[in-house]
Amino acid sequence: MYLDRTHQHLRVGERYYTPDTLPTSEPANQDAALVNFLRTWWSDDEYMLVQTSGSTGAPKLLRVSKARMMQSARATCSFFELNASDTALLCMDLRYIGAMMLVVRCLISGMKLIVQPTRSNPLLKLEEEITFAAIVPLQAREILRDPTTKNKLSRIKYTIIGGSSLDAELEHELSTLPNGIYSTYGMTETLSHIALRRVSGTDTNPYYTPLEGISVYLSDRGTLCIKAPLITPEPLETNDLAELLSDGRFRILGRSDNIINSGGVKIQLELVEEAIAQLHTAPLALTWRRDQRLGQALILILEERGGQDKTQLLGSLKSHLPCYHCPKDIIYVPEIPRLANGKLDRKALERIANIEKY
Hints:
By secondary structure, the protein is α/β, with parallel strands linked by helices. It contains 9 helices and 20 strands. The strands form 6 sheets. The chain has a 7-stranded mixed β-sheet with strand order 6-5-7-8-9-10-11. Helix 2 (66-80) crosses helix 3. The longest helix has 15 residues, at 66-80.
């Protein structure tokens, strides 16, 4: 086997899994996906297949190095000082890199792993005390809606939230919690996150700090580029427009493919969403509609929250936003469409805006 013996056991609840004690048949419980992952992890193959989320295109499989996955895991364990006395919570789909890396961190550090079914509120039936957890924004929203699970979240020493950005409403709620909650920046190609920023307590920060051994810079078009030689052999250019500070910290402004051209004015959807979220508390998203005069007209999609008046809201936005940032129309929906990982479903938003008109 390619791994040394120190990484060939995993404590899952009160059970221990090793290459020699893995079930030979398919487990009839929530550990089935974990057992399949461990079979592949402990095989002689030095690579694994990882599925991308599909948030920026069709989902695809990537072949990634197990050795590089371990390097990524070591960086996170070092940052949070995780060790064998700690307990980690697995509550995400093991087809994706975020869940895989949580298991690898347990293999590296010796942490005890607690497995919960992948559901919108994974803390509902959780009884164990947890040191470290990884969730997506959709799960965070559902946890916060229930006072009991919100209290459970506040008792987890460290929670990382990844898969998509945090909207203003969710980030404000998380900021009221006293424990260490961090937004992550990363992607499948970087084997989970390469930078963190705290969003809870008194030490919140709008800028991400790269983990040790990782540096970032901007391309000529203003997109973030990542140098992480232990994780990815070549520098990686993203589609994320960023602001970079002299000390290496950075802030994401939006995606380069989320810019629309409305009447000759380029509009970054995420920046305007952030501005509107300061004025309106309901979950929201921006998209565009085909328009004969403007080319692309800015459209606001809002979750229905009774008593809203479209004309009054548009008037209020016009008084607070630059004219070219003011939506040309508002569409109310029962729920903002999102992908399985919690990211906004931009394609679905475009369909809503254009079907509504045509």
